[in-house]
């Protein structure tokens, strides 16, 4: 008979391993290399990846300020099955409705594919790269 404590630790470990293997299964569909003077947004625009997706696919390497990337670093540009490659860089004066109109998508799809953009779209900024795919992507 297993003691309750042992049973708990086995259950906890198998839950941990299930999560770990689910993450390991999501490989990168494409990679990119950080160049000299890159910011996350510059790299995102060059490699056609949204600002959100780049951070989401590199949770260990990219923090909220993106101040730890270095030239030569290999970054994951998109995870298999959730890789948006249709993107636009925000221009000065842009709004979510203008960006959505230009891309022929709804604002709801734009917001769903860019979870870093708030619901009233007041936090977009020039140079930020947004996913404008017409399919809603579920990000892990
Ligand atoms: C991306 O880089 C990783 C780590 O170097 C490598 O294991 C993987 O094969 C690369 N994936 C692609 C699609 O190039
Ligand atoms: C990076 O920035 C430095 C300082 O502004 C500049 O001297 C250098 O030419 C830049 N390198 C590239 C590749 O743009």
Describe this structure in words.
With 140 residues, the protein is of the alpha+beta class. 36% of the residues lie in helices and 13% in strands. It has helices spanning 4-25, 40-47, 51-56, 96-103, 107-113, and strands at 28-33, 74-79, 87-89, 129-131. The longest helix is centred in the N-terminal third of the chain and has 22 residues, at 4-25. One 2-acetamido-2-deoxy-beta-D-glucopyranose binds at residues 28, 30-31, 74.
What structural class do you assign from the helix and strand content?
Answer: alpha+beta
Side by side, the strands of the main sheet go 1-2
Q: Strand-residue fraction?
A: 5-15%
Calculate the mean pLDDT score and round it.
88
- Euclidean distance between termini CA atoms: 38 Å
Tally of alpha and pi helices: 5
Shape: globular
**Distinct ligands:** 2-acetamido-2-deoxy-beta-D-glucopyranose
**Poorly predicted segments:** 4-24
Counting DSSP E segments of at least 2 residues, the number of strands comes to 4
H/E topology pattern: HEHHEEHHE
> How large is the radius of gyration?
18 Å
Biggest sheet features: 2 strands, antiparallel
Percent helix, as a range, is: 25-40%
Draw up the topology in text.
Layout: H1 4-25, E1 28-33, H2 40-47, H3 51-56, E2 74-79, E3 87-89, H4 96-103, H5 107-113, E4 129-131
Antiparallel strand pairs: 1-2, 3-4
Helix pairs in contact: 4-5
The structure holds 2-acetamido-2-deoxy-beta-D-glucopyranose (NAG) (2 copies).
């Amino acid at each position: 008979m297993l003691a309750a404590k042992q049973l708990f630790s086995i259950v906890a470990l198998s839950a941990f391993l299930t999560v770990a293997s689910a993450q390991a299964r999501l490989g990168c569909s494409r990679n990119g290399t950080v160049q000299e003077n890159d910011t996350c947004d510059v790299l995102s625009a060059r490699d056609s990846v949204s600002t959100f997706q780049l951070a989401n696919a590199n949770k260990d390497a990219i923090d909220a300020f993106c101040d730890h990337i270095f030239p030569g670093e290999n970054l994951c540009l998109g995870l298999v099955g959730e890789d948006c490659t249709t993107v636009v860089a925000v221009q000065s004066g842009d709004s979510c409705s203008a960006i959505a109109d230009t891309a022929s998508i709804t604002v709801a799809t734009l917001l769903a594919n860019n979870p870093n953009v708030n619901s009233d779209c007041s936090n977009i900024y020039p140079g930020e790269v947004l996913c404008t795919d017409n399919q809603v992507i579920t990000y892990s």
